[in-house]
Each structure stands twice: as structure tokens, then as C-alpha cells.
Amino acid sequence: MAVFLGWTYVLLPPACWAVLVRTRGVGTAVAVVLAGLAVVPVGLERGWFHSGAAAESEAGYPLATGLVVLVGTLAERRARGPRTPGGRGLPVTAAAVVTAVHALFGLVIALLYQLAVHEPYSPDRAEFSLPAGLAVERDSGADPNCALRYCVRELTIGSPEGLSGAEVGRRVRERLAADGWRPGPDGTLRRRHGWLLDKRVTVVRLDERERGAVVELIGPDRYSQP
User: Fold this and answer.
1) pTM score over 0.90
2) Tens digit of pLDDT for each residue in 63-99?
3) So where are the chain's domains?
């Protein structure tokens, strides 16, 4: 059911535009833009890329697509004039209403994020950038058994060149600092997981070994400080 609703959420704007479209030129241009916008929520959901603005992308998708459809409709109206009454009156009206409701749904999502985004989460591997010359030898993957206040993803970092754990740790810290991670309590590094709507913070705990290091990516709830 969740998969069906997710695809409906993504494909609704292109489907509505397919009903509203009247010209080849504007129709194709709008369809291409809608397809590009649809890649964003799909890519974030499937882990093709990571973005700190994931919440904003999800909430903004129906608003952005609704605006694109509106601009396309106005462009076609200017090129071909107002629609004339015909057999497609009901489907066109329904598509216009659904597009408007879908756009308003984005505002509801933004409000819900403020109320609901506080649970612990399993950090995405893409949140952690690895310095050149180092490699992830083991990745525990998404945490299926999150604790009460946080989820942990463990990465074992090694060096093909045989660097010491201290050197590996130094390089990792330098890279994270360059990526905007800031020092936290107990030697941790922290960075905002999201942007405006999702204010949770991802935490990195680094444990140096004789060869290499173990990195814990921690996704706490909004109120915890691991």
C-alpha cells in the first residue's frame, strides 16, 4: 500500500498534465521538466543520492510540479486561447482540481514534518564522505534494530597503503571538517541531517585501531545527545 501511494504521489502531476496538455511544444517541455522533478523524490527514496534538503524536496515536490503545470497551462492558453466546451470538460476539470489539491498537500507535509520528524533514523552511507586513499572494508548497513533513542551504522575504514589507525583517523576527521561536520561532546563530530524542516543531527564517533578505524554513524532522535 505504501509503495502504491508513493508512486501515486510521484506520478500524479505527469498524469494530470497528460490530460491538460493541448500543444506539442509546450506539452513536451512541461513533460520533460516534470520528469526531471520526479527523479528527485524517487532518487532520495532509493538512495541514488543524499541531500540535506530531502524533507524540503518531498514537501516542495507537489508545489513545484503544480507551479510547472500552471505555467504550462497559461502558456498554452496564450498560444491557443481559452478552452472551448467539449467532451473532455469533466476530465480536464478533474485534472486541474487534483493538481491544485496535490500542490496544497505539500504545505500539509511541511507542517507534519515540524510535528513528526523527531524519531531516530538510520543514517545513509552517502552522508559520510571518505578521503582519497581510504576504503570501507565493512558496512553494517541500515540499522534494523534501532535503540530507544538512536540508530547506528558501523563502517570499518581501512587503508590499502597500510596506514596506521592514527593516520586514518586524522584523514577522516580532516575530510569531515571540510564537509561541514563540527566537534561535539566526547570527541564526536556532528552535522545537521536535514535543512529547514528536518532539524535532526547526524553524529559520527570514531574509534582508531592499530590498522584503520571504526566509524559509527549515529542517527539520534531530535532530542538526544549520544
Assistant:
1) no
2) 999 999 999 999 988 888 887 766 556 678 888 888 8
3) 2-116, 125-220
